[in-house]
Amino acid sequence: MSQPLDAAHRHCQSLQDAISTLRRNSLRRLAEWGTHLGTVLPVGGRLLAAGNGGSAAQAQHLTAELVGRYQQDRPAYSAIALHAETSSVTAIGNDYGFGQVFARQVAAHGRPGDVLLLLSTSGRSDNLLAAAETARDAELRVWALTGPRPNPLADAADEAVCVDSPSSATVQEAHLIAVHILCEHFDAVSGAPRAAQAAAGVPLEVAVADRDGAL
Questions:
Q1: Which domain holds residue 176?
Q2: Could you tell me the CA-to-CA distances from 202 to 106, 145, 193 in Å, in that order?
Q3: Which of 21, 78, 106, 206 matches a 20 to 30 Å C-alpha distance to 195?
Q4: What is the CATH classification number for the domain harbouring 92?
Q5: What pLDDT digit, counting tens, does each position of 111-125 carry?
Q6: What range(s) does the SIS domain occupy (predicted)?
Q7: What tens digit of pLDDT does each residue of 87-139 get?
Q8: What HEC string does 3-38 produce?
């Protein structure tokens, strides 16, 4: 077997191993995340998402699925990829430093009951840790998609899904699968809560409180 082909087989095996572990350990949590978003976004809540490099692309992929659609036609929901706000990122980075590019936006856009999802292969990015701290102070729920535990971002989040692989490429590929699983569960539950809450005229704060009690 040629060296490039052997490397390709190792890459595929690494992904297969990571997905097997994800399937065994994290499907329930991803389903809970999708259900949680399905009760928050349809009543006026918002998802904020951020990452660096390839993880930024994954975060933006998720927000695109929610603002647009995943598989079925449905209303658009509020989801912002913070790293994609280029004028804000460059202005904040210039004035406050790169470590604050996400935290400052969380302070601007986040409201109690919203969700912040942070993606990182290492779980050690200072700007994501600062965003998590700001979000917790502002009463957002913080989720993290990271590489292997232990890592500071998983510890700083309310909940985390950690892909157990030493390969950053494998972690990012598994994160994409996790994003799609989350979207599948969101689509499954987002219609009914929206209709029920809208009919009852329930504000976001009350809906969030009811949701948290149910979970």
A1: 14-190
A2: 25, 31, 11
A3: 106
A4: 3.40.50.10490
A5: 999 999 999 999 999
A6: 37-214
A7: 999 999 999 999 999 999 999 999 999 999 999 999 999 999 999 999 999 99
A8: HHHHHHHHHHHHHHHHHHHHHHHCHHHHHHHHHHHH
92 in helix, strand or coil? Answer: helix
pTM for this entry: 0.85
Helix or strand or coil: residue 199?
Answer: helix
- Indicate whether 50 belongs to any domain: yes
pLDDT tens per residue across span 162-201: 999 999 999 999 999 999 999 999 999 885 444 444 433 4
Residue 39 within a domain: yes
Place of tokens 């157990």: 164
For the chain, state the CA radius of gyration: 18
Q: Is residue 214 part of a domain?
A: no
In the chain, how many domains are there?
A: 1
